[in-house]
Amino acid sequence: MSEAALVLEQVRTPMSGSSHHLEVDLCIASGEFVALVGPSRSGKSLIIALAAGLVSPEAGRVVLLGHEWSEASASEPSHVRLRVGTVLEQPGLLSNMTLFNNVLLPLRYHRGAMSDRSREHAVMAQLERLGLMPVRDRFPAELNHGEVRRGAIARACMLDPEVLLLDDPVAGVDAEMLLVLRAYVEERRADHPLTVVVAMRAWSPFIEGADRLVVLRDGRVEADGPRDAVAEVVPAALRRYVE
Amino acid sequence: MIEWVGRKTIAGATYLAALATLFSQAVLDLVLPTQQGRRETLRVLVRQILFTGVDALPVTSVIALLLGIIIVTQAGTQLPRLGAGGLVGSIIVVTVIRELGPLITAFIVVGRSGTAIATELGTMSVTGEVVALRLMGISISRFVIMPRMVGMVLSMLCLTLYFDVVAVLGGYLIADAQLTIPFYAFVESVTKALSTTDVLMTAVKGLCFGSAVAAVCCHHGLAVRSSFTEVPQQTTRAMINSFVLCLLIDVVVTVPLYL
Asked: Are the beta carbons of A92 and B143 separated by less than 8 Å?
């Protein structure tokens, strides 16, 4: 748990649609489950985008699994990408592929040596665990929001990532499937060390198992720590995000 | 005025440099050996050839046939008045095989497939599919651009040659039916006028047009940022710029060779 999986060191970067700047100093240990919570435009999604190397900070450093994202390296360091599963607010399932083929794509592309049969078994297992088997042959346009999001999470997990970055993973997910999703992440964390960073717009049972909550407002960390400790120190206006 | 010209020149040079970068990266992806994503990329390539090449055969056949008929009708009725009735074959070679064949094929491909590529990539950008591919460690150049570019170049080359053959056939049909030019006389007239350079130049034009159209359409598709309303705007730009670039390439290839 001691080695850092993600470090945002004195990061400062402008936030689109807001006059504030994101200013954070954050270190997430390997195997930790951290939930970023707070109102809209507080900088949660921006932290996910910074961690995924999609945005370069104006100042400071972002280091993911020992790799520092910078302008020069942001092009295509695929060896890091393969160790990280990311699902953004827009899940980005390929619209010309069925859900099954979408989830299969990372294996087809990166695991050419695997047999077709093993790849398909692996995908079936993921879809089964996330309750997506009945809709596996549907195209993304035929799925509801929750199914799309769960499909994107299944796809992000296909290469057994060491870090999972999820931006609002429960949007559109119904209460039953939310528990399925939580159990899925917990199972994966039990299987092997997995660092999970989740951005959440509202409190959800999905983050009950989080080791740490980081409460954000206007680009700044208002509170950081285990849920109970955070609940005590967080300003009253933000309490609803941790309770 | 000078400032405006300077700005436009810089913008044009930047645009051409972006196209050249896109194209050279795709060529590198094609020639550099890697096992990663080979089958998936091949799948995209085959789909592109089917859509751009095979699916375009009917419309290309009709347009080529009609063009051949129109040109031979005009040539066959006007040339004898000038005492040049034997030049019908030359007219077909000069107008269709050297010029109109490659150009009209390019216009067909731009209208059918170029716009489709720009729209598809634009939509993929807006819906986050392009970013999702990047996040999965899948190279956009290798998986998205290269197969579309190769598919379009191969399809354009084959369609151009096919267009020429069908247009000549259309010309023969009208020559035989209305102008009573016998088959052998028509073929002899065409083959006499046709040189190896003509065929090579047609092929070169097909390759250049295919590369240009693919690069332009991929560039404009990926230039879409955050709104669906940008998709038709970029598609229109891709179409117009493809037409202009094809004509420019045609001039660059034709003028030094035939002038």
From this structure: no
Cα separation of A125 and B10, whole Å?
54
B186 and A CB contact within 8 Å: no
Smallest CA–CA distance, residue B84 to chain A, in Å, is 56
Question: What ipTM describes this predicted complex?
Answer: 0.91
* Cα B153 to Cα A18, A125, B119, B160, distances in angstroms: 45, 40, 19, 11
* Pick among A109, A160, A165 to test the B interface (most B CBs inside 10 A): A109
**B133 and chain A: CB distance < 8 Å anywhere?**
yes
> B166-221, pLDDT tens digit by residue?
998 888 888 877 767 777 888 888 888 888 988 999 999 999 999 999 999 999 99
Domain that holds residue B132: 2-258
Give B107-120 pLDDT, tens digit per residue.
Answer: 999 999 999 999 99
Q: CATH says A4-83+161-241 is which class?
A: alpha beta
Nearest CA to A40 among A164, A189, A201? Answer: A201
Instruction: Give chain B's domain count.
Output: 1
Do the Cβ atoms of A167 and A89 come closer than 8 Å? Answer: yes
User: Does B225 reach chain A within 8 Å, measured CB to CB?
Assistant: no
Exposure of A235 by Cβ count < 10 A (0-12 exposed, 13-18 middle, 19+ buried)?
exposed
Q: Which of B60, B132, B43 is nearest to A167 (CA)?
A: B132
A–B CB contacts, 8 A cutoff, strictly below: 73
Does A106 contact B123 at a Cβ distance shorter than 8 Å?
A: no
Residue B93 makes CB contacts below 8 A (sequence gap 6+) with B190, B193, B194, B198
| Portion of chain A with pLDDT greater than 70, in percent | 96
User: Domain boundaries in chain A?
Assistant: 4-83+161-241, 94-155
Say if B34 is an interface residue toward chain A (CB within 8 Å).
Answer: no
CB nearest B127 (choices: A76, A92, A105): A92
Compute the distance between CA of residue B242 and CA of residue B248 in angstroms, rounded to an integer: 10
